[in-house]
Write a structure and sequence with these properties.
- Helices cover about 40% and strands about 15% of the residues.
- The chain is of the alpha/beta class.
- Helix 2 links the parallel strand 1 and strand 2.
- The longest helix has 19 residues.
- The protein is globular and about 50 Å long.
- Bound molecules: phosphoric acid mono(formamide)ester and norvaline.
- The site of norvaline has 9 residues, from helix 6.
């Protein structure tokens, strides 16, 4: 039984396999076909934070695959009505897979420790692996072979940035991150990258222009993530020079793509002109969450496609 808590949990070959299943299922989906690869399988979604894309793409994906989903929000009392360990021991007897969205990454590792079914991280403070997989898949659709290209990330060194860094290492993309001091990757995560993703080529800078130079795609995420709302005024000041706007995009090569995991705080980390402009692939990127979740579910539950 496998879990997916971070992208580093996957080998390069496993990512290739997930993308191959995804491509097959997406092609069939666009032809109106829904392959019931997971009949009778049950997915529990356990969410401590709000979600549009992750929740709905997993639920819709499981329906497409012939399985079913049960959504558990705050009212389930996860971690408050009973311990995470007891919750995991019980829920994992009813479900084949649990998708968790939690504030703390430790909650995900604890849930996985005590669960007897597969656990997928649907976002924690430290990682958003399913997002990064959909992002890399979207890039692949646009540029084909990923190896040797550079993905630039401008903004907070947060959960999304960390998963992208791991993912880039696994698929052979270079990763250039521009973040202000105090919001860059910490040394513990840098060590983790060195150990777990030694093949990653990474440029860390405080200068967005330096990061986007030579990039095949520019990525940003919100300056204030869920759970950090009290810091938003301070963060707006710190990140003021990190907005992805037309001036910054002009410093990247012509045709550079723009990606964002969404939801976006328009006017903060990105302008309307960029996110709605010709270089933006954010809508396709969000659409691919559905297809890649299906690839992940079919892979983790061992379905034969
Ligand atoms: N990108 C993403 O995970 O969106 P949601 O928070 O809506 O799930
Ligand atoms: N970094 C953001 C991503 C949302 C999909 C957050 O954690 O809120």
């Amino acid at each position: 039984m496998r879990n997916l808590l971070t992208v580093a949990d996957l080998s390069s070959a496993e990512i290739d396999r997930i993308f191959a299943i995804t491509e097959d299922l997406k092609t069939k989906y666009t032809q109106g076909r829904r392959d019931a690869l997971l009949p009778g399988r049950v997915m529990a979604l356990l969410f401590e934070k709000p979600s549009l894309r992750t929740r709905v793409s997993f639920e819709a994906g499981m329906t497409n695959l012939g399985g079913s989903s049960i959504f558990l929000g705050q009212e389930a009392g996860f971690g408050s009505r009973e311990s995470v360990a007891d919750f995991a021991r019980v829920l994992s007897q009813y479900a084949d897979v649990i998708v968790l969205r939690a504030f703390k990454h430790e909650t995900a590792t604890e849930l996985a420790k005590y669960s007897t079914c597969a656990v997928i991280n649907g976002l924690t403070d430290a990682a958003h692996p399913c997002q990064a997989l959909a992002d890399l898949y979207t890039l692949k659709e646009h540029i084909g072979r990923l190896k040797g290209h550079t993905l630039a990330y401008v903004g907070d060194g947060n959960n999304v940035a960390r998963s992208l860094a791991e993912g880039c290492g696994r698929v052979g993309l270079k990763f250039a991150i521009a973040a202000p001091k105090g919001y860059q990757f910490d040394n513990e995560f840098r060590m983790h990258l060195k150990q777990e993703v030694p093949q990653l080529e990474m440029l860390e800078t405080t200068d967005p222009a330096e990061a986007v130079r030579g990039a095949v795609a520019v990525y940003t995420d919100v300056w204030t993530s869920m759970g950090q709302e009290k810091e938003s005024a301070e963060r707006r000041k710190v990140f003021a020079d990190y907005q992805v706007n037309e001036k910054l995009m002009a410093k990247a090569p012509e045709g550079t793509l723009f990606l964002h995991c969404l939801p976006a705080h328009r006017g903060e980390e990105v302008t309307d002109a960029v996110i709605d402009g010709p270089q933006s692939v954010v809508v396709q990127q969000a659409g691919n969450r559905l297809h890649v979740q299906k690839g992940v579910l079919a892979w983790i539950l061992g379905a034969q496609s």
